[in-house]
Amino acid sequence: MDTKIGLEVHFQLNTGKLFCRCPVEQTQDEMFRFRRKLHISASELGNIDAAASYESMRSRSFEYIVADNSCLVEMDEEPPKSPNRLALATAIAVSRSLGCDVMDHITYMRKIVIDGSNTTGFQRTAIVGINGRIETSRGPVRISTVCLEEDAARKIEEKNNVVVYSLDRLGIPLIEISTEPDIVDEEHAVEVARSIGYLVISTGNARRAVDAVRQDVNFSMGYGRVEIKGVSKLAQIRDVIRYERERQENLRIAVDTIRSRGGIDRSSFKLKDVSDFFSNTKSKIIRNGLESGRIFASLLKNMAGTLKNGKLRMGKEIADLVRSYGIKGVMHSDELPGYGLTAEEVETVYRSLGKSENDAVLLIVMDPARVSFIENAIFDRIQKIMSMDLSETRGPSGDETVFLRPMPGKDRMYPETDVPVIEVGADLAAMASSIRPRTYGEVVQDLVKTYGISKQNAEYIASEMILDLFQRMAQLIDAREAARMITQIIPDLERKTGKVLDQDKILRLCQRSKEMQLDRYQLEKALEILYEKNSVEAALSDSRIRELSRQELEDLISDILNTRGDATRNAIIALIRERTDRVFDPRMAMECFNEVKNRR
Amino acid sequence: MDTKIGLEVHFQLNTGKLFCRCPVEQTQDEMFRFRRKLHISASELGNIDAAASYESMRSRSFEYIVADNSCLVEMDEEPPKSPNRLALATAIAVSRSLGCDVMDHITYMRKIVIDGSNTTGFQRTAIVGINGRIETSRGPVRISTVCLEEDAARKIEEKNNVVVYSLDRLGIPLIEISTEPDIVDEEHAVEVARSIGYLVISTGNARRAVDAVRQDVNFSMGYGRVEIKGVSKLAQIRDVIRYERERQENLRIAVDTIRSRGGIDRSSFKLKDVSDFFSNTKSKIIRNGLESGRIFASLLKNMAGTLKNGKLRMGKEIADLVRSYGIKGVMHSDELPGYGLTAEEVETVYRSLGKSENDAVLLIVMDPARVSFIENAIFDRIQKIMSMDLSETRGPSGDETVFLRPMPGKDRMYPETDVPVIEVGADLAAMASSIRPRTYGEVVQDLVKTYGISKQNAEYIASEMILDLFQRMAQLIDAREAARMITQIIPDLERKTGKVLDQDKILRLCQRSKEMQLDRYQLEKALEILYEKNSVEAALSDSRIRELSRQELEDLISDILNTRGDATRNAIIALIRERTDRVFDPRMAMECFNEVKNRR
Amino acid sequence: MERALLRYRNSVISGLIINEANGVITVKSSNGYNMTFDKSEVEFIERKREEYADHRKIEAIEKGQGEKRISVLATGGTIASRVDYETGAVSPVSDPELIFGGSDILTRFTVAVKPVMNEFSENLKPADWIRIGEIVARESSDSDGVVVAHGTDTMSYTSSALAFMFEAMRVPIIFVGSQRSSDRPSSDSRENMEAAINFAGTDIGEVAISMHGTTSDGRISLLRAVRSRKMHTSRRDAFESIGLPPIADYDGIVKFMGSYRKVSEEMKFSPKLDERVSLIYFHPGLNADDFENMISGKHAVVIMGTGLGHTARDLIPVIKNASANGTYVIMTSQCIYGSTGLNVYSTGRELLAAGAIEAGNMVPEVAFVKAMYLLGQYPHEQFRDLFRTNMRGEILDRDVPEETLRISR
Amino acid sequence: MERALLRYRNSVISGLIINEANGVITVKSSNGYNMTFDKSEVEFIERKREEYADHRKIEAIEKGQGEKRISVLATGGTIASRVDYETGAVSPVSDPELIFGGSDILTRFTVAVKPVMNEFSENLKPADWIRIGEIVARESSDSDGVVVAHGTDTMSYTSSALAFMFEAMRVPIIFVGSQRSSDRPSSDSRENMEAAINFAGTDIGEVAISMHGTTSDGRISLLRAVRSRKMHTSRRDAFESIGLPPIADYDGIVKFMGSYRKVSEEMKFSPKLDERVSLIYFHPGLNADDFENMISGKHAVVIMGTGLGHTARDLIPVIKNASANGTYVIMTSQCIYGSTGLNVYSTGRELLAAGAIEAGNMVPEVAFVKAMYLLGQYPHEQFRDLFRTNMRGEILDRDVPEETLRISR
Questions:
Q1: How many domains does chain B have?
Q2: Is there a single domain that holds both residue C92 and residue C181?
Q3: Co-location of D184 and D281 in the same domain
Q4: Residue C222, domain extent
């Protein structure tokens, strides 16, 4: 069956929040906190929303940190104000540029979301445009909808049964652009995401921040639709699609293997308390587990060698599910003995379960109260995989994906009666017309012409959607130097340190560097230190950005030549770097080398 | 000239507060605090109120502790409510019993008080009766007025320029009965205070608490009127009058002495900074003083030997004044050398001031900023004394009196417009008629008849105005035992420990003693421990109130007889007491003594 | 209901027609979104009628296994309503299961839900107060507690009216509302109602209101009706008892915070109200003629004056006249907090002289309801005395500072 | 004034006759106490007339050595009055020395006190607002700041009116009142006035109110007039700016707490108000006829509705009719806190359809004043737009939770 890929691309806007007049950015820390629960009665959910009932089952409570860019609207303590008009106009402009039929009335809906990320228990969303398309190198990709929604609260932490969210992000306007599953492979997906990106970001109304753009990837290769939520970088789109294809192919193999042995059955899957077998164990994981719970084990009929064996990873499918309920200690026979367990202990358990050669065994450390619930959940998941229905919601994790929750049913939506239907009148249409999204080609051409940077750099800037950052940086430092920082130095530093810095911080460094008249070597060193220390002022006051004087260079070179008389002109720069972490002008170092050499 | 003594007797009522519906007693600690200042413009005070301007000069701020028996009225945050009707009726009943002309309308006034003891800056007061009299053994004493006022806030502490008050007492109704200066001596004053006391306390509406009755004594022997404020016990009236008479007589002698030498003059009284003379002093008081201030000295022309010399104590007159401004370090030549000063140091100062034999010298440790003010204040006081105008407000201090502030001028009073004039109608008159104040004789007769106690004890109870305490105690323990406790044991304990316990505490002890069926020895011991530990439960759980059993007594007596074979029947009780602090029945001890003796 | 297939520009949309009026049509499309179009912009490809069940009817229902039987009377308002997901129409909730599913309420109580009316509370009239009172009286004879689900807008008025009409009650009468409708996952209705039922299971002999104590879930406060006021348009903790801490809190268990009246052996219910009372907001520029018109024909008027309870001097003759003609004129303050004090300024003293009655610290809306009750129930000559007499806790003896009230929580 | 010697029962009393009316006589006796008697109970031994200076007149006076000149306009009210100790009569204060003696105000400022009127603020009419505005405008030409001493009862109304009439101002316009009269040692007038003069010495180009921030002395808050409301009948900290922290605090120095409008080069003063506006308190039982009468003849009415801004359904036709006939009907909420929200419930939507204008989070009294100003100053066709436009800070962009406001202090 063909691979079908669809994207939902989300862009935060910097226009101010959607349903109140709070700013998009916060300036102060926590003001105070409050706590809520969300309620949804079983009968209402009915058979409709497995994802919602999964959340409901967890019966968590939610603690909200009130940020200074939030008001009673984010607290769900007053009705929404009328939607931000610039956000509406931006969504209309984007819809138009995607060739959509733009709605003549915009009607807000409530989409039920009960993971606490919306204080209301729903997300407000409206269709602005429908039925558009975007041209790509592999033919047109259809755009089903362009929506203007409110972003959710930002999750801070989860402890026990309390999830903590900050309200700073809640209510930021989010343009959501959904494609039909017309995308043919991962490279194509990246191209589509990028093309859509140009259009939105070039309006100038998209927010610049680490998580301001997020993609959901819908993937299907005949085993049901998998939705991978919250992919934040373009390159990651490629990675997760590749990973997901492999995962599904490998599951096909595993399932075929199990089926060929006779498959699984419910009656043989029973979690039994086997704690007694471990009363003298030296396994840390088991001993810790016994302090707060018990050890349960079950046969996994015919599943030996499918749990963790080369590319076969059925074990991870089970562990991901169990982990999503907050249970960590999962072990299975493909990796046993291990975890400090002896072969004897393992064998005792195997025997007690009547394990035969083809069977696998699962071990879980958990609270006895939840056994029957977890047993059902695990078997349901195995059975679903065995039927090769792999549909579910997953999330990116590095270049892999992990189980998040069952695929939600059709969204539970009802009208947002607090927000009157908005007629797209002449003024809104005119405001939209003043916003001009541009394509990739237009953006690249512009950059080369305006800033005199290389086409290659311009393409990088355009394709990484960092146009705005570049333009702002080019106002502070030489445009070509800005291009170099953006295309080479920053990506290098991000790779080396594993950190992503806030763009505002980098811009502030450039601003201060301009004020302090640093040269490019100093600026680059300061940037390097910024990644280390995370503080602009700390970076700028670091001794390492004090440049080596000609005299200091000459002394250093003399010193080097004293110990390494053979040092060549080519090697000298590296040798100086070995001896100091302060900056210097390599050209001047060469000159000094020559001079010192000559003097000898 | 004749001695003239007048009294103002104040009784707190237990009827609930006067201008709001808060209870008289508080049940919880501090709720919160607030701060205020009081303002009175100089031009308003004019030459009228020296006491008020004295307070104003101190420009203090006031911190109020809000008690749970206070509301917005005590905070001066809302107008007064109508006056408590039972309090009004009680004041009317008392006025009637004093033969007053009772007002047919009661008109509330505001009397300016700016020491912070009233949050409003004034005390609300109204005349209820005028022109009464009370018969005494020395003839009738005229009653000028019976007023019903609000009590002031209770002073907690004074730190720097902040005076802290609790609002618990503010607003408690206070009946003030003022006599004309018809009282001839201290014994008569006590008789009058006692006679008035019976009348008020026998209404049953007077508050029982340590400071619920307070007397002001007006005293004059021809040298101006001295008002001694806040004498709380009857016996103290006697003491302070005696002290005051002696003080004035001695001042007369001192003044005559000084006059005979030529008197004082302003020009010779100048506080000079003499700190430099003490740069190497070993005097602690001076060395400490120099850390925060300077040392000042002045000649006191012709005053040698009047400052502290036998009964002459002019020095105390000066020190009391200075101390009232918060300055402590006052020394004078009648006591120098002393305070660790050497004769040499003292002499150097004397020489520098040109002291001759008849002159005295004053030394003060103080803040230089206040010198000129203090210099004036001291000289004014000396000059006033020299003219034998001794009028001022003083306070009791043990059996002495101390300077408090200048005598206030005529009270600054204006109408309390927030409280409408109260017509004494038929209902109020009827309520007053149901309250029957009784005289001393009536009370004594009643006690003897009702409780079968001795006339002597009844007289004590009546004259100490502890009728209510006695009646309540007699409901808990045998009436004669109660009388004994009240007339002997408690006064003994108060004398021994220097403590006065809350009556409620003593009553609670009696109540618990009844529940625990303690005998009189145990109760008396428990009372003794209560004075020591201040806690009823601690007293009752103390091992000392466990009574010695017959066996224990016999063992103890054997023991005594082993070392002191000569112990007599008469001495044995004292000998037992030496060896144990537990209680025992002396009668049983005698029996045991006889038995042990017989057995030997 | 009609299902339609329609063309809008280049798109074809299928869905249920939700609304069609004023030249505009709204369709619930198959993706769940409502879409609204100018009718002139769409072309119908197909329309067909479809059956649709109407859930708006509500019937009495009783559920639960608890020993204590609590009657829940639904009168309308946010708490009793939910939005139909399909149509967006608002319909009343009747099944307790919908509200209590998952909690232990139905194991601890037997809950009987009865529809009384279905009105937004701003539409209720004094006659409705009587009707609700009568049903409460009837229910209280075979229940252990009565809960009245009510719109929040005028809940203080209705509950105060019941507080006066019930001079004595056999069972607690607890009003409950919500500020977020029951169909929202974030609704406060569930916790408010759970608390109300628990409050209704106690021995409190007062009419009181069960609403959120703070913006957080988890603590529901019980407020004395005759001191209550809605002090915020939209927050969950909009209700406050003016100058008085809550009678009790519920956070899983009922915790009494202060003294309260206990239930009586016998009920005493006096359902008479005189509707010829009005509530007038004094403001600068209110002229004597307009004022006279407002008073005319009334048996009592409650004026929300300024400050300590004042009006402009030129209205005083009107008050004097009205008062002389048997109309009771009551002064309250638009400040909301604090007491009137007509003895402080000459304006106040002139108002007293003109016959005005001061409401002290009575909440203005409660003074208004009390006037209706006194006029309906007692001889007119007792009006002045009774008005100044604390009958149901509507007058506070003491004006305790808010700082102390906060500490007392 | 008369001095009398009289006999009451067995007593003889001498004093000044303070009052003699209704069969009752009050004498200030020589011991300072006033004594009141039934005239039938007393017998005059002697009465004689005595000269007594009347201090009630007030004249303009200027004092102080400071560079900045502040005009203090006295309009009456508690802050400007003191009781005569002798007679108990209330008279205005004119001499700044009486207020500032002992403080450093007169060394830092030159203070010019001018009497404008001597009225309790409840008696002020819109015409008085104009008169005050005109004098403020005049004073502002040769002062560095103007302070208006005003009764607290309607200070929010008057100051809001000035805020609208002064579209731009050259100098700060600071209103100041007091809750305890100046003759009391505990009066808040002295600190409020000291702060007001200091606020008037800044560059704030707004009309604002200087009153106690808490019950304690020592911190005076400056509140934006068009958000202010008197929220307590008697406390010192009665004034509050609804939903907004104070602009500034004074505790010896002025500390600005947030952003504020600065003074302009030029003054723009537009003193026209349309008085045909009224403020109506909706309540259950308000019937359509009465309501129609109240509206009749008005150019605008501000209704204090329930909750999010509602009235009973049966009043909506009246509103629709009035609106159709050119009367602007504005919905505010009697809740005081929070915003109206007419899109939430059908009642609100019907009100909007009937032509009602929602006031959002505008304070009801301010909405009332704004309507007068707009009708007086602008063409009617601009009314709706301007009413919803934030002109002087009267509309808050954001409804920030009170918890955050408290932290922002």
A1: 4
A2: yes
A3: no
A4: 61-269
Inter-chain CB proximity C278 and D284 less than 8 Å = no
The average pLDDT across D151-161 equals 97
Per annotation, catalytic residue among C114, C230, C298, C370? C230
Q: Are residues A131 and A8 in the same domain?
A: yes
Does the annotation mark D404 as catalytic?
no
Q: Are C136 and C162 contacting, i.e. CB atoms less than 8 angstroms apart? A: yes
- Which of D78, D327, D332, D347 is catalytic? The answer is D78
**Interface membership of D307 toward A (CB under 8 Å):** no
The better pLDDT of the pair B188, B160 is held by B188
Q: Is D278 on the interface with C (CB under 8 A)?
A: yes
Per the CB < 8 A criterion, the answer to whether A293 and A366 are in contact is yes
Indicate if C153 belongs to the active site.
yes
Would an 8 Å CB–CB cutoff place D259 in contact with chain A?
Answer: no
- H or E stretch including D322? helix D316-324
Amino acid, res. A136: T
- Under the banding of pLDDT at 50, 70 and 90, the label for residue C52 is low
Asked if residue B240 belongs to a domain, the reply is no
Instruction: Determine, for residues D185 and B41 on separate chains, whether the beta-carbon distance falls below 8 Å.
Output: no
Looking at the structure, do residues C265 and C283 belong to the same domain, yes or no?
A: no
Pair C75, C103 in one domain: yes
Query: Does C385 qualify as catalytic in the annotation?
Result: no
For residues C126 and C170, state if they share a domain.
Answer: yes
A93/A182 same-domain check: yes
The reported pTM is 0.86
- Residues of the domain holding B501: 440-545
List of chains touching C (3+ CB pairs within 8 A): A, B, D
Q: What sign does the dihedral A327-A332-A336-A337 (CA atoms) show?
A: positive
Whether residue D396 is contained in a domain is answered as no
- Asked if residue B195 and residue B291 are part of one domain, the reply reads no
Q: Are residues D100 and D245 in the same domain?
A: yes
For residue D262, give the DSSP letter.
B
Q: How far apart are CA A167 and CA A517, in angstroms?
A: 40
CA C314 – CA B25 distance, rounded (Å):
46
Instruction: Provide ipTM, 2 decimals.
Output: 0.85
CA distance A127 to C13: 13
Q: Best-predicted range by mean pLDDT among B148-162, D31-45, D325-339? A: D325-339
Q: Establish if C25 belongs to a structural domain.
A: yes
Q: Is residue C56 part of a domain?
A: no
C78 is catalytic: yes
Nearest CB to A35 within list C8, C86, C216: C216
pLDDT tier, C188 (very low <50, low <70, confident <90, very high otherwise): very high
What pLDDT sits at residue C96? 62
Q: What is the pLDDT of residue B548?
A: 87
**Cα distance between residue C239 and residue D306, in whole Å:** 13
Is there a domain that residue C401 lies in? no
Same domain, C199 and C94: yes
Q: What is the mean pLDDT of residues B42-63?
A: 57
Kindly state whether residues A14 and A117 are assigned to the same domain: yes
Q: Report CA dihedral (D139, D140, D141, D145) to the nearest 10 degrees.
A: 110
Higher pLDDT, D336 or B209: D336
Residues D243 and D282 in one domain: no
Tally the domains of chain C: 3
Strand B422-423 versus strand B413-415 pairing type: unpaired
The DSSP code sequence of B211-228 is TSEEEEEEEESSS--EEE
Q: Could you tell me which residues are beta bridge partners of residue D3?
A: D16, D48
| C to D CB pairs, distance under 8 Å | 176
Q: Taking CB atoms and an 8 Å cutoff, what residues of chain B touch C388?
A: none
The band of D93, judged by pLDDT with boundaries at 50, 70 and 90, is: low
C74/C93 Cα distance (integer angstroms): 9
CA distance linking residue B398 with residue A301, whole number of Å: 98
Residue C233 near chain A (CB below 8 Å): yes
Domain boundary among D225, D245, D269: D269
Residues B562, B538 within the same domain:
no
Both tokens of residue B278? Answer: 């003490």
